[in-house]
Every structure is written in C-alpha cells, then in structure tokens.
Amino acid sequence: MIADIIKDAEQKMHGAVEFAKEEFGSIRTGRAHPAMFNKLLVDYYGSPTPLQQLASFQVPEARTILITPYDRSALAAAERAIRDSDLGVNPSNDGNTIRCILPALTEERRKEYIKMARHKAEEGRVAVRNVRRHAIESVKRLEKDKEIGEDEAVRAEKALDVSTKKFVDEIDELLKAKEQDLIEV
Asked: How far apart are CA 81 and CA 103, in angstroms?
C-alpha cells in the first residue's frame, strides 16, 4: 500500500521533470533546434495543428533551420505562424521550404531567457513538491484510519523526502545546463 503510494509519487515527479525538460527545450538558445517550434500551432484547414506534425526540420548550420511542410498548401500558414510567434525570427520561403535564420541573441535577451528558464524550473520544483505533499496526505490518511503504523508512516515520509530531493536536484541540473547554453556566445 505504502509502496504503491511512493511508486505513484515517483512516477508523477518524473513526469514533472520531463515536463520541465520540454519547457527548457522550447527556450531559444544561440543554436537552432526543432524543439523551439514544439509549442507552435499552425491553422491547418481550420484547426490548430502543431507545426511538428506538418513539417520536417533540418539544421544545416548552427543558426539556420529549414522547415519543409509535408503539404505545400500549409507553407503560407506555417510561415505566418512562425512570424507571429515570440521566437524573434523572420522566416523566408522559397516555395518549397521555410528558412529561418536566428539572429544572434543580445545580452538583454539572454538575461530574459535565463529568467524565463529559472521561472520554469521553479514551476517544476513546485510540481514535484505538490506531488510529495499529496503523497504524504495519503500516508497520513492511512495512518489515521489505522491501516498502517506510525513507524511505517515516518519511513514513508522519509522515502518521499529522498525522492523529492532527487527530482528537485535533477531539475536544478537541467536549469544549470540551460543557463550554460544561454550564456555561451
């Protein structure tokens, strides 16, 4: 029973770390990468569709990305979605592909992205702590209902604390790596 609660909590904490990793991937660094376009939705035949599902991505140079829609009719809509996004790129299309050349990040923009990364990391830490809190509430409920003893409840809390620290440290490592990417010129 307690093992199930701890296992479930660890799975949810792992999910929070994976979500934070995805969020970090969507923050632009000095290099082009397809993950920058993960959250981008294109109006494709009247329905918002993720750009990742409509096109293939190639990175021929560090600051250039080529986007080739599978359907040529989606080219203009994809270009419009990229231009309207907050990525700060000006796409150009040659009739088959969209070429996005990323401008070099200014110092001010880098600081803004670092601040955004720290905010996303804090959201991840809060999510992990919330999972811990809910799991501890479940353990206390079992203790109150006399289904487990006090010693078992204390051991479960300690195990949850260890798991929480492990996953929070993992988020901190991801943040440190992202900040390092953003600082590099």
From this structure: 18
Count of beta carbons in the 10 Å neighbourhood of residue 181: 18
- The model's pTM is 0.73
The CATH code for residues 2-25+106-183 is: 1.10.132.20
Give residue-wise pLDDT tens across range 34-75.
888 888 899 888 899 998 899 999 988 888 899 999 988 888
Query: 90: which DSSP letter?
Result: -
CA atoms within 13 A on the CB side of 28: 22
Q: Which residues pair with 48 in a beta bridge?
A: 43
Q: Which fold has domain 34-101?
A: Gyrase A; domain 2 (3.30.1360)
Contact 128, 171 (CB under 8 A): yes
